[in-house]
Amino acid sequence: MILTYCYRIKPSAAQVATMLYTLELLRRHWNYCLGQRLDWLRRTRCQIDRCSIVSEPIGEIPATVNYYTQQSDLKQTKVLFPDYKNIWAESQQVNLQRLNKAWERWLFPDKSGKRGGRPKFKKVGELRSFVYPRVNCPKAGAHLNHGMLKLSKIGKMPVIMHRPIPGGFTLKTCTIVHKADGWYCSISIQDETVPEPMLLEEVKTAVGIDVGLKEFLTTSEGEAVPIQQAYRKTQPHLARQQRKLARKEKGSNRANKQKNKIARIHQRIGRIRENFHYNTAHNLVKKYDLIAVEDLNIKGLARTRLSKSILDAAWGRFITILDAVAVKCGVRVIKVSPHGTSQNCSNCGVKVPKTLSIRLHECHKCGCSMDRDENAARNILDRALNEVGLILSAHRGLGKAQPVKCEALSGRKSVQLSLF
User: Fold this and answer.
1) DSSP summary character for residue 344
2) Residues in domain Probable transposase IS891/IS1136/IS1341 (predicted)?
3) Which domains does the chain possess?
4) What DSSP state is assigned to residue 289?
C-alpha cells in the first residue's frame, strides 16, 4: 500500500530563490526536450517518397529521440549550461520521465483505446514541482529526520509535521511543491501489506447512495447529507477580486499580488470541498460494510446546463476518495450502472417516468411513495447486491442475519439516464 502525506515546509529566503530557479531551469529543459521530440516526429512521420510536396521539413533525418537519448545528453547540458550542476541529477531524470510518460500517453492508447492530449510547452511559472526519488537512504537527495528536511543542493529546512508518519512504512519519494500559499513537501510512503476487502460472508450492513444537487447524497435508509456549494457561496467574493485584477496593469507587482490572492481563494475552495468529501467518506465507511454507488459519466454530465453545479459538487472526486478510504478500511465499494435508477420503482420494479422537477416518487402500480433520491438509492443498492450475489432482507441493512446467495438477474432493457 502506498500513501502520500503532505507537509508544509519553511524554507529561508535564499532557499526559496534557489527552488524557484530550479523550477525555472527544469521548465526550460522540459520545453527544449519536448521541442526536440516534436521536431523528430515531424521529420520521421512518413517515408521520403510519400511526403507532401506542399509543406514538409527539410534537412537531415535526426537520430531517434527517446528518454534514454535525452538522459544521456544531460552531461552535455551541464557542460553548456553550468547552472544545471546545482540541480540534483535524479530530479532532472524524473523531469524527463514525466515528459516521457506524457509523450507515450499521447502516442499510444490505453486498454480502453483512449489517448491523452499532446504534451504542451510550459510557460513561466507553470512547472510547480520537482522530485527527489529517494529518501533517507545513503545515496538519497532528501533526508527527513526529527522534523527537519535536508535537500541536496538546497539545504535544511523545518517541516510542520501536523500528522506523524505511521510505523512500518518506508519513505519512498519526496516531491517539493510550490502552491499559492507557500511550499510543501509530499512524502510518498509504502508498506508491503495490502488490506484485503471484507469477505461477502462477513458483510452485515449495506447501503446505496445517490448523489444529487438538491442534497449531496441520499442513502437507501433515507438519510441525506446537505450539499455545500463551496464555489457558489464564494463566487461573489471571487468576482470582486477578479474585477480588481482586470483594472491593474498586466505584469505589474500589484497585478501579480492580486493573482496570488485569487489563487488563494481557489485553493481555499478546493480545500473546503476536499475536507467535506473526506469527512463524508469516513462517516459512510465507519457505518457500513458494503457501499453501492453509481458509475457516473461526469464528463458527459458536465456538458449540460447544470455543469457549474455538477463540477462544484465534484461527485467524481468524492467517489475516488470514498474508494480510497474504503480500501484502507477493507470496506467494499460497488459501482453499478446509473441507467433507470430514478425512473424504476424500488418496490415493484415498474418504470415510473418523471422529470427532474418531480422530487417525489409515486408508483401507480404498487402505491409506493417516497423521496425520489431515496428510491434511486434503493435501486442502486439492489443492483449492487445482485452483482455480488447477496440478498438484503430489508432496506435497513443485513443486521445479524447471514447474507444469502441469490440468482443472477435476468437481462433488463436499458432505459433513459437520470441525472439525479
Assistant:
1) B
2) 200-303
3) 2-46+58-190 (no CATH), 200-228+282-388 (3.30.420)
4) S
172, 178, 179, 182: CA torsion to nearest 10: 100
* b/e burial code for range 40-50 (CB count within 10 A of at least 16 → b): beebeeeeeee
Torsion 258-260-263-268 (CA) sign: negative
The owner of cell 480545500 is 271
According to DSSP, the residues that pair with 238 across neighbouring strands are: none
Per-residue model confidence as pLDDT tens for the chain (420 residues)? 889 999 999 999 999 999 999 999 999 999 999 999 998 888 887 666 666 667 666 667 778 899 999 999 999 999 999 999 999 999 999 999 999 999 999 999 988 888 999 999 999 999 999 999 999 999 999 999 999 999 999 999 999 999 999 888 999 999 999 999 999 999 999 988 877 888 888 888 999 999 999 999 999 998 999 999 999 999 999 999 999 999 999 989 999 999 999 999 999 999 999 999 999 999 999 999 999 999 999 989 999 999 999 999 999 999 999 999 999 888 999 999 999 888 888 888 888 888 888 888 888 888 888 888 999 999 999 999 988 887 655 444 444 444 454 443 334 333 333 333
